[in-house]
Amino acid sequence: RAVAIEAVERASRVCEAVFKRLVTDETLTKKDKSPVTVADFSAQAVVNNILEKYFPNDPIVGEEDSKDLLGEEGRVLREKVVELTNTAVNTPMSTEEVLKAIDRGQYAGGSTGRHWTLDPIDGTKGFLRGEQFAVCLALIIDGKVRLGVVGCPNLPYDMSQPEGEKGVLAVAVEKQGAFQRKLNVKDFIETPIFVSIVEDSCNASFCESVEAGHANHGDSAKIAELLGITKQSVRMDSQCKYVAVARGDADIYLRLPVDSKYVEKIWDHAAGNIIIQEAGGQVSDVNGEPLDFSQGRTLSANKGVIAANANIFGTVVEAVKATLSNKF
What we know:
- By secondary structure, the chain is an alpha+beta fold.
- It is built from ten helices and twelve strands.
- It starts with a helix and ends with a helix.
């Protein structure tokens, strides 16, 4: 638990350093994604380096590999990644060590033994806008998520004060509850977090993606109508949505399939999944089946995601099934 927290905190610092140094008005207008690429690689190198130090035998299912950093074509990017990685590690890492750390994330996953899964930057567009993104790390043992940490550098600690202190780290261990603490602040005070206690779906609110491509907003509107939801949605990118529902800022998170071929990646949901459950909520796919993290690098046995507090979860699942009516 302490190692995972340290890894996510350091990776979050790298992402913030990249944002300050490399994201400008110009990168946004040109839709230049290179700062995200630097942050992705650097954050993965930092986390994998820490995991290797403490758990040398644990494989990692990560999103990135180092092929884009190799050779002369990758030189400029490689140099930036090495420089920024070294802002967050105790002992400086050579170029070779950074590339090796990144490539520790190539494990295939599966149903036996221990492995970690990492999303070094979840919510790339949110990151570029200076809005919500997350560093997400989870430990999976025998196909089940046992620990999850989500670092949200730009998430307000208290959503009732959106301009107040920002930077949240949410952590959950199986059967030990879910907690939040301030990210990168020396006081290690953790407070328990709980999903909302809304009992009627008409009083609930959705937490939805900012990015239209991530969800079918037409189906969402139909589901909202069935549930009698009139409250404005809380909109944000990344697994910060899981954290928002886990601490009661919103009541329902839906990730509806955009098409029948799309398969979710385990690193996009593992940490958020256990945080919601340990905060007293429930998570399933759009058919009400639990998310199955034993299938490898993807959630190939599932379609979409539903998360909500336990009071309204069953009602939400029924509304989703009625709307999608076996489309998936």
